[in-house]
């Protein structure tokens, strides 16, 4: 027992780290390389288990907010990805080590607007940059090690029945007395860090209060287990702690830093302009048709519509990581406006959303829909051989 305790102390001393923004000391027995590998594996599983949303409008909003949060996360080397899963009944989001973030469409009505979405993404990104997953795994390893020491000591001083009873008590005590409070502490810490991240990205952190109020109403706070038996704080506790953390977060907030910070409600995208909605429906249609055609044929069809060589279309799409539909939209914007291609590419690479680009450039939604319709017509006659 003494040896096990000494081992735990030595491991703890050798594996101390500091959580950003809060300064809390944490123990992590998992390397960052291992964390990122696990994150990649779990991300692949998540994408196999849930369909990815084809709602280009909602996805554009999620990725725009996500990129802004990632830009202030302090982890520029991470390969950030923000995926919207089409699960209307799943009110959830998560972030994995290495920058893989998943949001489910069932969460969008709760988020309501861009600032609300930023509070959710900020919270999840906070879990990732604070290495909470590795910390919990490490604590589990230490508890198992200590439990093994207890089992050895108990086996030598009492009968098997008494030893089993002690082990059961130890297990319950560890779960309720250590692991669950530890989980609640992480949630509160992620709330605090998330408020700072969203504020640094240009979103009003006070929006988080309304999000958690809507979450409590949607889930029914009265049906939740007692707080001491839950991995999350109660909604009342959570909102109270968020209010207490707001003054610090507001020190990072500068109104107007995030252009077009507030967007229409995401519940059913009812605030979207019908013309803009038609644009993104056309983009989705092109992507669907492109999936059934050879890559060269897709580039040729798009290039023919905008008097561009196929290789130039491919280069432009790759440069800004655009889908075929988005590449066609970009070329349509360039034809309809006097915007320089370099500026549009720079805006896209900087995380600008399509709504903002269309409005800022003064592009005609009607002209864009006509151009995209012509591309779709060209592609509809092209099939993968």
Describe this structure in a few short sentences.
With about 375 residues, the protein is mainly alpha-helical. Helices cover about 65% and strands about 5% of the residues. The protein contains 16 helices and five strands.
How many whole angstroms does the radius of gyration measure? Answer: 25 Å
Portion in helices: 55-70%
Approximately what portion of the residues adopt beta-strand conformation?
5-15%
Question: pLDDT below 50 for ≥5 consecutive residues: which ranges?
Answer: 4-14, 157-181, 259-272
Give a description of the structure.
There is one protein chain. The chain is mainly alpha-helical and 385 residues long. It folds into 2 domains: 1-271, no CATH class; 274-380, no CATH class. The protein has helices at residues 2-14, 32-49, 56-71, 108-111, 114-129, 132-155, 160-200, 207-219, 235-250, 274-290, 295-305, 310-319, 324-336, 341-349, 354-361, 365-380; strands spanning 16-18, 25-27, 81-85, 93-96, 100-104. The strands form 2 sheets. The protein has a 3-stranded mixed β-sheet with strand order 3-5-4. A two-stranded antiparallel sheet has the order 1-2. Strand 4 (93-96) and strand 5 (100-104) form a beta hairpin. The longest helix is centred in the middle third of the chain and has 41 residues, at 160-200. The radius of gyration is 25 Å and the shape is elongated. The model is unreliable at 4-14, 157-181 and 259-272 (pLDDT under 50).
